[in-house]
């Protein structure tokens, strides 16, 4: 899932902030997965629920749902392992088919790996445009029905001689983040179609006001960085709330950001950096290390930017912002915060309102209903109607210092719902929480996630702080795995070729977690073979 208040590519909940992306490390010797796997479509119904009035007017049409597959590990009797792509184009998920979790599970079980797109993302569009009326077919239950339909009907090109449909063939689902919750629901809603599922960082509890998002940072990020962030954000908020327009203007102009019309847009932008935590990964070729650069900058006691002329102003702001007792320690850090944020978000942007602002109801990100704008609209529609996860600063309990500005409020985060879809009320979280929320469980449903994942607070692992509780509840049928080593978001999903591994990579917690998943799916396949013997004729 995306960090909704950020400039995201989300929701793998992944994010991308202009100017801070490290140059990707290319491993030139391995083939580009986009050249290995041709694109395919399966035709699926637009409306799986002809009886339900919420989908009226109904459609009896079909649309192309995209998928990629790899049968190179397949041997007779092996499963079909379907990775649900979730809220993005699946092209970015292809490395998981080539060398990530799907390749690993397929190799361990002689399976076929599949990456399946979600309706209203990538090229899998049920409607001709993204008008709000056309979005009526974008619900979690319709998308779950797509994946069940896929498994009941799939005939893989080149393998037409094999009947690989469910339930005669074992189908196993994998998903991370939103897709992690999705596959858990899939196992429960379609137990006869999906033999097992792995829910990685699965956000099975939909939460309207998700202020807890940043609590993982508070607990696991470097303490000096957390303390500094708490104070700098508090100073900023106290200035912006002071009513002293002269000081507010001077403060904004230190970032060269006076042109922000709305102070909440300014405050939201200057809060973005802390969200970079989620972009960390154990694989340096995948990780965005910017969070640590940011921390390195705001905790450095020397002025790192050419803005020491602002030092006396900075100390006055710290004083009037309530932290005068620490102003000698905070002044240079404030200058570094200003310098870093200016370089990251302001420099080179000629219209700050247009780039970061949420208040313009006629902005193209809200009003452009063409299919190509799905990145701005589709996940927003899903969280405005069903999932929530508004990452607010305003509702952080008053006994805590918020790690993002308190000007980032629920109404502020709702502006996209207001302007893009005319939605003003909270989402109907019951539509997804009915599957079990935090307490979701089912035979052959694996729950896995990172200890330091901000999304853990919306997952079944939220309350599993005690390692001994894990050991008590984890079984082969229902493994519960908390990945240590400061693991963040679905760190079990990406992998390395055998010739790329070293003693450090993958790190032991990830290597062990992936091995445990492979063993679990192998055990599930032994149960499958039993089932085929006990119920003759039930397997192809
Ligand atoms: C590593 O393995 C991959 C997959 O088998 C292969 O494509 C690549 O060429 C190998 N790299 C080297 C350096 O051998
Ligand atoms: C899959 O469907 C999309 C959307 O209809 C289309 O653009 C694309 O060409 C199709 N791909 C193939 C291989 O048929
Ligand atoms: C419509 O509802 C009826 C009665 O509840 C049910 O038997 C039937 O299967 C439903 N049809 C569809 C397409 O869902
Ligand atoms: C969207 O498509 C519908 C038909 O599905 C059409 O009636 C409507 O005018 C289109 N709206 C936009 C904004 O393109
Ligand atoms: C494939 O197997 C299923 C049972 O799992 C059966 O219902 C279906 O008719 C078979 N399809 C073909 C094309 O034989
Ligand atoms: C300060 O600025 C706000 C917003 O621009 C404005 O509404 C208010 O009247 C100003 N206050 C003073 C004292 O000028
Ligand atoms: C400050 O941030 C820059 C830009 O991200 C980074 O290159 C540099 O290493 C950081 N400095 C420190 C001391 O962390
Ligand atoms: C502060 O930044 C400077 C310049 O980048 C660097 O040389 C120094 O090591 C940093 N100090 C700390 C404590 O990181
Ligand atoms: C540093 O900033 C001052 C203005 O505050 C400017 O005059 C000077 O040219 C800048 N120096 C560099 C090296 O950019
Ligand atoms: C400064 O004051 C704040 C309360 O306003 C307090 O929380 C903090 O601990 C004080 N810092 C020091 C170094 O005493
Ligand atoms: C401030 O922003 C303006 C407008 O984008 C730009 O022209 C100017 O160079 C910037 N000044 C600094 C010091 O970055
Ligand atoms: C839980 O299991 C792990 C791995 O088997 C083991 O290392 C750890 O000591 C166990 N913890 C407790 C509290 O029993």
UniProtKB/TrEMBL annotation:
Residues 1-22 form the signal peptide. SUPFAM superfamilies: alpha/beta-Hydrolases. One of its GO terms (molecular function) is dipeptidyl-peptidase activity. Pfam families: Peptidase_S28. InterPro entries: AB_hydrolase_fold (IPR029058), Peptidase_S28 (IPR008758). Keywords: Glycoprotein, Hydrolase, Protease, Signal. One of its GO terms (biological process) is proteolysis. The keyword Cell cycle does not apply. Belongs to the peptidase S28 family. This is Serine protease. The lineage of its organism: Eukaryota, Fungi, Dikarya, Ascomycota, Pezizomycotina.
């Amino acid at each position: 899932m995306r960090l909704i208040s950020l400039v995201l590519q989300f929701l793998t909940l992944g994010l991308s902030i202009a100017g801070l992306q490290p140059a990707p490390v290319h491993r030139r010797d391995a083939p580009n997965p986009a050249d290995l796997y041709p694109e395919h479509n399966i035709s699926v119904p637009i409306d799986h629920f002809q009886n339900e009035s919420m989908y009226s007017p109904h459609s009896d049409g079909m649309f192309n749902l995209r998928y990629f597959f790899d049968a190179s590990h397949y041997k007779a009797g092996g499963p079909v392992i379907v990775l649900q792509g979730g809220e993005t184009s699946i092209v970015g998920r292809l490395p998981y088919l080539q060398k990530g979790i799907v390749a690993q599970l397929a190799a361990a079980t002689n399976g076929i790996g599949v990456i399946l797109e979600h309706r209203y993302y990538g090229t899998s569009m049920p409607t001709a445009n993204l008008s709000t009326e056309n979005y009526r077919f974008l619900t979690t239950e319709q998308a779950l029905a797509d994946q069940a339909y896929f498994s009941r009907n799939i005939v893989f090109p080149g393998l037409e001689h094999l009947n690989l449909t469910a339930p005669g063939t074992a189908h196993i689902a994998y998903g991370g983040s939103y897709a992690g919750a999705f596959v858990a629901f899939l196992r429960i809603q379609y137990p006869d179609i999906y033999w097992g599922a792995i829910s990685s960082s699965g956000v099975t509890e939909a939460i309207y006001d998700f202020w807890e998002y940043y609590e993982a940072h508070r607990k696991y990020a470097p303490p000096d960085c957390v303390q500094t962030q708490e104070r700098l954000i508090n100073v900023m908020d106290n200035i912006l709330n002071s009513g002293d327009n002269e000081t507010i203007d001077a403060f904004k102009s230190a970032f060269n950001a006076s042109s922000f019309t709305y102070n909440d847009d300014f405050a939201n932008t200057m809060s973005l950096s802390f969200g970079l935590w989620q972009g960390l990964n154990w694989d340096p070729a995948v990780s965005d290390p910017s969070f640590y650069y940011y921390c390195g900058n705001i905790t450095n006691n020397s002025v790192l930017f050419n803005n020491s002329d602002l030092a006396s102003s900075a100390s006055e702001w710290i004083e009037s912002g309530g932290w005068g007792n620490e102003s000698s320690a905070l002044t240079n850090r404030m200058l570094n915060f200003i310098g870093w944020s200016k370089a990251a978000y302001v420099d080179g942007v000629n219209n700050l309102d247009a780039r970061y602002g949420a208040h313009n109801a006629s902005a193209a990100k809200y009003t452009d209903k063409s299919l190509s704008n799905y990145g701005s609209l589709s996940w927003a529609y899903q969280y405005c109607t069903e999932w929530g996860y508004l990452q607010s600063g305003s509702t952080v309990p008053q006994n805590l210092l918020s790690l993002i500005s308190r000007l980032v409020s629920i109404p502020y985060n709702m502006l996209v719902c207001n302007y893009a879809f005319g939605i003003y009320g909270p989402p109907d979280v019951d539509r997804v929480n009915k599957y079990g929320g935090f307490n979701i469980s089912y035979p052959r449903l694996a729950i896995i996630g990172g200890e330091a994942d901000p999304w853990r607070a919306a997952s079944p692992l939220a309350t599993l702080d005690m390692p001994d509780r894990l050991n008590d509840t984890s079984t082969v049928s229902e493994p519960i795995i908390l990945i240590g080593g400061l693991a963040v978001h679905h760190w079990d999903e990406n992998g390395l070729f055998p010739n790329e591994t070293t003693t450090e990579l993958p790190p032991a917690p990830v290597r062990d977690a992936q091995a445990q998943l492979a063993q679990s799916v192998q055990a599930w396949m032994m149960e499958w073979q039993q089932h085929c013997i006990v119920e003759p004729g039930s397997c192809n």
